Amino acid sequence: MMRWVPLELDRSSEIGFQVDTVIDTYNSLQRQLIRRESSDSSQIKKALEVLRHSFANRLEEMTIFYQENDLDPRSGEVEAARLKLKRFLHSVESSCAERDLKTEAFMLPLSPEHEMTKSTGKNHGKEIIEARKGEEEAGSDMVTLRVVLTEEEYQEILARREAVRQLKLNAMLYEQ
User: Fold this and answer.
1) Residues with Cβ < 8 Å from 55, sequence gap 6 or more?
2) Smallest Cα–Cα separation from 95: which of 146, 155, 26?
3) Per-position pLDDT tens, the chain of length 176
4) Phi, psi for residue 2 in degrees, rounded to 5
5) Residue 74 contacts by C-beta under 8 Å, 6 or more apart in sequence?
């Protein structure tokens, strides 16, 4: 397991530097695995897996730390490092999913429209478009937006919404 710099506001610059270092380390191991420079690629795969797990844990710790200290200006460096780590971890997970797609280990389900076409042999596209158009005309001043979030993203949105609510409440109390 990784030894991370303790999450303290006085060490925020060290935290950002360490995030850069571990990302570079991960990329270096990834390149070694691709080039097969190491005689034992299973050890590198295990190290990469441990790093990904450690990144995910650190991301959670950094999220909690930032939420607790978001009013301190020094916490901005920690948040920047957290976002960098989050983007990197997301890109790593995306590349793993792409690899799974290429090996057909992961397949997306077919859309209902595709299933209807496949079963009847007839393209129902025009009928579906007309039905959707009718739905749009019926509620023309209403828009439906669907967003797919992970549990972590949803919790982050809730936490930020609560923080904004608290700030507004504090502002109202101080104005009185």
Assistant:
1) 22, 26, 85, 88, 89, 92
2) 26
3) 678 999 999 998 899 999 999 999 999 888 888 887 556 778 888 888 899 999 999 999 999 999 898 888 888 899 999 999 999 998 888 776 555 444 444 444 444 544 555 555 555 455 555 555 555 555 556 666 677 778 888 888 888 888 888 888 888 787 76
4) -75, 150
5) 9, 10, 12
CB 107 within 8 A of CB 80: no
Q: Domain map of the chain by residue range?
A: 1-108, 146-176
Look-up: residue for tokens 């972590």? 152
Which pair of tokens denotes residue 162? 């609560």
